[in-house]
Amino acid sequence: MVNEDSLRMNAKNLNLLLWVAVTIWLVMMFNSMTTTDPIESRSLSYSQFLQELSDGSIREVTIQDEKIKGLRTDGSRFETFDPGDPALVGDLLENGVSIRAEPPERPSVLAQILIAWLPFLLLIGVWFWFMRRNMGGGGGGGGIFNFGKSRARQHAEGEVKVTLRDVAGVEEAKEEVGELVDFLRNPQKFSNLGGRIPRGVLMVGPPGTGKTLLARAIAGEAKVPFYSISGSDFVEMFVGVGASRVRDLFEQAKKAAPCIIFIDEIDAVGRKRGAGLGGGHDEREQTLNQLLVEMDGFAGNEGIIVIAATNRADVLDPALLRPGRFDRQVVVGLPDLAGRAAILEVHMRKVPIAEDVDSRTIARGTPGFSGADLANLVNEAALFAARAGHTEVAMQMFERAKDKIMMGAERRSIVMSESERKLTAYHEAGHAIVGRLVPEHDPVHKVSIIPRGRALGVTLFLPERDRYSMSKRQLESQLSTLFGGRLAEEMIFGPEHVTTGASNDIERATDIARNMVTRFGLSDNLGPLAYAEDEGEVFLGRSVTQQRQVSPETAQAIDKEVRQIIDRNYKRAKQMLEDNLEKLHTMAEALLKFETIGKDQIDDIMTGRPMREPDDDFGSTKPTSGGGGDLPKGGAPRKEPPVVGGAVGGV
């Protein structure tokens, strides 16, 4: 809100003033400690002084503090140090020397003031500088006397160059906010019919889906001033600062109306109100109260549209969401197939693309990717092409970039022993075979024993289409697939050689089975009841006082039901591997030979056909020679990539 150039100029002036004060203080200190005798005098030792005194060579002396300055009979001057000799005055009088005593030298009044107060002024200046830096840095503030000012960054009319044409993949959201642009351009069109434009629009969606970009596009399209601020910028260590900043923000916006105020991550300041364990007052709550008043209080704010973004709408205060404040909630979700293709085409405009690149093909292989993920995909592909010395980004580079994002970067520095490679190959083959055989499971896209990220091997499943819900059969198929790796280790190497590599598989399987019972109501014995506790509680005091909704008997029944689901799918996966033991050996041998195999090779193995060799697009390399490695025997616990599009991203 505060002009950044003026802030920088004020900071320079303050620093210059401090340096001038320090320089003056040093000069005066130097002057007070030095003498300005215009006639040069020679220093004598006290014994030489007494000798000259007895010889009658001294005419007069001046005693000041511990210094003795004198004049000889030949007109030359001298000075010496007075050791506090009590007989000195008597000796001087006996030798006829004129004696003059002077009071101690004192600095001037100005010098005394500077010497006494400048250290305190310097401390105050340093404290002032730190406070200005902490309270006023970032987008405004100006210092300790201005930290109640809003820290929002102001973009003048026409400064925002982003328009709705630059936003892709969220067509419904663009339609929702389109009338905001129309209102800002032509408000009379709505007021003539008695219509009232929404005072606030809350954009809700996962991270990276383009909420901030959409808000900037609205401002760029309407060509009105745009104020952007983060929700955390309102809250400070001092009580009342947040409310003051809210008031200042809306005061500035009123002067620039019509305009847009964009609050990113509003859940930082807009969470549900409530007392903590100590019953103390919350500065964040006071800030929220002021925000509620400004958005729809006694004094109206015509021409100001507040746009906020969050991915936790469930924790916002109900008073903030009511009509009159945030009248409308715009869901900015993950893009579908057509949306992903459109987003890719937007980002591909800045990159030289080869003729073999098809945005729809890439979009089909990236389910669950957000707009930020797709932007990162194009950037990674361009980096791969640059490293390879290419002038265009080919489809192969997009495949490599997708593998890096979904499965992790290759770690060629890890050299596994032959026994570790063999165990990893059977582990991943077990996942792939069970995943191929269970019903309604996503197809196997790729299997690799190349260490990636924190995993020694990865089995990647990609859904054939976007999925928005999961059936009980699909969840149980995922459970069986997760146990395929551990079961393959047990069947081939024996129970005593089962490794910790399946620790993450077991953790994920347990979470799925427990959610089936406690959240999804998919238990035959316990029925369609919700037993899971609320994970969105934001106040410790409220969560502590809540009573547990599950009795000990019910908790025991839940554990029993979870165990039954786990055992049922564990046995199913074991039976499938026993029935396809030969295919397990074949797939493991292929992995040991090529390290990475794709869908075509897996189809050949499962149908009994001779296996085709994988293409270079899969990143296959010659097998790594054995000889030991840094990892423990059997490999470290496998940490899979995140779930993509509701599918098992890699196991």
Automatic annotation (TrEMBL):
<dbReference type="InterPro" id="IPR003959">
    <property type="entry name" value="ATPase_AAA_core"/>
</dbReference>
<keyword id="KW-1003">Cell membrane</keyword>
<dbReference type="InterPro" id="IPR005936">
    <property type="entry name" value="FtsH"/>
</dbReference>
<keyword id="KW-0812">Transmembrane</keyword>
<feature type="region of interest" description="Disordered">
    <location>
        <begin position="606"/>
        <end position="651"/>
    </location>
</feature>
<dbReference type="Pfam" id="PF17862">
    <property type="entry name" value="AAA_lid_3"/>
</dbReference>
<keyword id="KW-1133">Transmembrane helix</keyword>
<comment type="subunit">
    <text>Homohexamer.</text>
</comment>
<dbReference type="GO" id="GO:0004176">
    <property type="term" value="F:ATP-dependent peptidase activity"/>
</dbReference>
<feature type="binding site">
    <location>
        <position position="431"/>
    </location>
    <ligand>
        <name>Zn(2+)</name>
    </ligand>
</feature>
<dbReference type="Pfam" id="PF01434">
    <property type="entry name" value="Peptidase_M41"/>
</dbReference>
<feature type="binding site">
    <location>
        <begin position="205"/>
        <end position="212"/>
    </location>
    <ligand>
        <name>ATP</name>
    </ligand>
</feature>
<protein>
    <recommendedName>
        <fullName>ATP-dependent zinc metalloprotease FtsH</fullName>
        <ecNumber>3.4.24.-</ecNumber>
    </recommendedName>
</protein>
<feature type="binding site">
    <location>
        <position position="505"/>
    </location>
    <ligand>
        <name>Zn(2+)</name>
    </ligand>
</feature>
<dbReference type="GO" id="GO:0005524">
    <property type="term" value="F:ATP binding"/>
</dbReference>
<dbReference type="InterPro" id="IPR041569">
    <property type="entry name" value="AAA_lid_3"/>
</dbReference>
<comment type="function">
    <text>Acts as a processive, ATP-dependent zinc metallopeptidase for both cytoplasmic and membrane proteins. Plays a role in the quality control of integral membrane proteins.</text>
</comment>
<comment type="similarity">
    <text>In the C-terminal section; belongs to the peptidase M41 family.</text>
</comment>
<dbReference type="GO" id="GO:0030163">
    <property type="term" value="P:protein catabolic process"/>
</dbReference>
<dbReference type="InterPro" id="IPR003960">
    <property type="entry name" value="ATPase_AAA_CS"/>
</dbReference>
<keyword id="KW-0862">Zinc</keyword>
<dbReference type="GO" id="GO:0008270">
    <property type="term" value="F:zinc ion binding"/>
</dbReference>
<keyword id="KW-0547">Nucleotide-binding</keyword>
<keyword id="KW-0479">Metal-binding</keyword>
<dbReference type="InterPro" id="IPR037219">
    <property type="entry name" value="Peptidase_M41-like"/>
</dbReference>
<feature type="transmembrane region" description="Helical">
    <location>
        <begin position="109"/>
        <end position="130"/>
    </location>
</feature>
<dbReference type="GO" id="GO:0016887">
    <property type="term" value="F:ATP hydrolysis activity"/>
</dbReference>
<dbReference type="InterPro" id="IPR003593">
    <property type="entry name" value="AAA+_ATPase"/>
</dbReference>
<keyword id="KW-0482">Metalloprotease</keyword>
<keyword id="KW-0472">Membrane</keyword>
<feature type="transmembrane region" description="Helical">
    <location>
        <begin position="16"/>
        <end position="34"/>
    </location>
</feature>
<feature type="active site">
    <location>
        <position position="428"/>
    </location>
</feature>
<keyword id="KW-0067">ATP-binding</keyword>
<dbReference type="Pfam" id="PF00004">
    <property type="entry name" value="AAA"/>
</dbReference>
<dbReference type="InterPro" id="IPR027417">
    <property type="entry name" value="P-loop_NTPase"/>
</dbReference>
<dbReference type="Pfam" id="PF06480">
    <property type="entry name" value="FtsH_ext"/>
</dbReference>
<dbReference type="GO" id="GO:0005886">
    <property type="term" value="C:plasma membrane"/>
</dbReference>
<feature type="domain" description="AAA+ ATPase">
    <location>
        <begin position="197"/>
        <end position="336"/>
    </location>
</feature>
<dbReference type="InterPro" id="IPR011546">
    <property type="entry name" value="Pept_M41_FtsH_extracell"/>
</dbReference>
<dbReference type="GO" id="GO:0004222">
    <property type="term" value="F:metalloendopeptidase activity"/>
</dbReference>
<dbReference type="GO" id="GO:0006508">
    <property type="term" value="P:proteolysis"/>
</dbReference>
<comment type="similarity">
    <text>Belongs to the AAA ATPase family.</text>
</comment>
